[in-house]
Amino acid sequence: MERLAALEAEVKADADAQRARKEAALARVREQRAQQQAPRRAAREAARRDDRGDELGDALALARRAHGVKQELARPPRAGEKSWIKSGLASTLLGPLGWLYAGSLREAIPASAAWVVLAMIASKILPLFLLMPVMLVAFPLSGIAGVVYALQYNRTGSRQRLFDKEKPKQLPRGE
User: Fold this and answer.
1) pLDDT at 77 over 80
2) What is the model's pTM?
């Protein structure tokens, strides 16, 4: 019995020593990894701080633009300008037909014709309850486009294209 007890004590001591060596090795590996990752963490923290600074700058720029738009919308239209309220309402109620008020005729006429043809075909084929979800999306988007058309008209004094923003081609100067 004494030998068995001594053998168990020896096995337990050996297991404890192996566990201690394993924990020491793991601690060394963790310390090495922490030392290797410290520069990466510092770089990530610096990048995160820079991103926060960029985000703050972006937020301030967006707030300035929103304030400018608010000022522009609050001002009553002058002579020769288009009312963004009328344009938005007409475009919301009539779809692309409302774009004819302030939008680019190059975009408004084809869109209006397509809208009328599509409405005639859809009204013959589809019941109204199937068209309602489409109209609930299309009409507000059309109203937003109408407001943007009116604001662009007021900024430039002429009808501006909203879609297909290609730069106008300049003709070569004659000599």
Assistant:
1) no
2) 0.54
